[in-house]
What does this fold into?
Amino acid sequence: MMLAYLLRRALAAVPTLFWVLTLIFLGLHILPGDPAIALLGDQASEEQLRNFRALNGLDQPLLTQFWNYLKGAVFLDLGKSYQLEQPVAGVILSFLPYTLDLAFASLSLGILVGIPLGVMMAIRRDSAWDFAGGAAALGGISIPDFCLSVLLLLVFSMGLGWFPTVGQIDMSSPLSRLYNVFLPALSIGFVQSAPIMRVTRASMLDVMNAPYVQTARSKGLPAWRVIFLHALRNALIPVATVAATGMTVALGGTIVIEIIFNRPGLGKLLIGGVASRDYNMIQGVILVYSVIVVLVNLTVDLLYTFIDPRVSLGKEAS
Amino acid sequence: MGLTHLFRGSRSGVVGFGLTAMLLLAAVFGPALVPTDPNLQSIANAYAPPSWAHPFGLDIYGRDTFARVIHGSRVSLFIGFVAVVFGGTLGTLIGALSALEGGRVDRFVVRATDILLSFPTLILSVIVIVALGNRFTNVVAAVSAAMLPKFVRYARGPTLAIREQDFVQSATALGAGKARIFFRHVLPSILGPVMVMAALWVGIAIRIEASLSFLGLGVQPPTPAWGTMLKEGVESMLFTAWLALFPGLAIMVTIFGLNLLGDWLRDVVDPYVMSLARRAEGEGAAEAPGAAPAFSREELARMG
It folds into this structure.
């Protein structure tokens, strides 16, 4: 059942990825701008430009280029980077862990902060907690992650010296990975926590008035049991939806944050690719972003069945 | 109706209104009140700290940061508002007409919108910039393009709900054409919620513009833009803190003010229409099995 559902969802993602690829390809190739000139400069001779185009297949008809690209993408061959002169897939693979570290750490921080605070705000409704949480959520929604990251850098790196400013990222041990990713992740995670907090609060308030929670209370169960085992589990369903969308937002956030913290990652590859009109690199990076989003949505769908056993895979929600 | 009545004791509404009004005034009259040329260089005084003469200090080229922040407000607010007007108008038309039309057209629009919304907002703008180049008008186009699918999805929801209302059914039965139904019945009903979202999304548009400028893909130097200034500030962070601090604060205060204003507007606009919009939004948003009505869309939407 589970395997069949996974296969069906994976197949359903193929058209989405196809259209994403088509959109990027058309966007990059139809409109003006020549990667040969961008990379070799205005001074390059006509022959050099011609050679570059021939070498990278840019002199072929657009449809042929697109077909070749699609064929390659199926076998994970995303072409060669014009600028780095290496296979795009290999370069992306070596940078991917940094971006995944950052995106997942951000989302985890958002969830770890957002859900407990949201629960606290709901069970202490209209208290100082609720008010402070509401203010924090408003701040999270209003403060762009890149502005927050600058403030964090100024205070914790430049001022207190607790974290490295910029430079080499040591990925050798999990602890150093965590240490290096903490400040950038906090920038995105704080922003992530805001909607999670708000939704958890609203959802908990809804659930706390449900008859089954009232029953659990009247049975004399301890408060923590009622809140965490009875109420929170159901309240988490909409939170999972928000967290899934949060992953897309977190990925968008990583682009600028990677530049600010000078971290290696897909964002840096993308912006580097844009600067040198490295079509293959741009296409590859955006495709990988899309694949991550598709995978996260799939994971969240599977999570629903865990959170709410009434949800059965492959059937419409009742 | 007096202002006091309009705000109905909403302190956050007053703060949002005040901040946004202040920013608009700064953008319109600021350059006249702060006559210092934002591009006037004084290399000898580069990195000078804040003083009475230069409240926000001088930057790497000895330019007055205060003057640049004030002038930069024009760029940010202009792009923010214009992009929302362009993206909002086109997106609302596409979303509402697609919902009215139904069938294959609607399915195509929904699919395309889903795909466009499936990757980070910033990337959409980056693709447009890569394709068109980073001239000022193209930056506006890039931010508008990022806003467009949001409005398509948002306008489609309430239109679907309104299409089924008795008064629209009656108009159809009386032989009203699609154009008449759209302009006489649908548009006036969805305009309220769409404008509230537009107010909320100006903040997103400003953030996207600032991100693009930060990445070097938006407004180009020497034009003062907050994103570009933030980038220059980060690059010289080892020497000075304020160069990154002030444009960063400007962006934050602007988005904060616009968010508060948008929240207040949402409360003021007819609650019936807003509830229709929200309900329809929930229906459209529950893609995942078991998903509750997506009452968090607005918060998410504001984050881009």
The mean pLDDT of chain A is 84. Residues 233 and 306 of chain A are 10 Å apart (CA to CA).
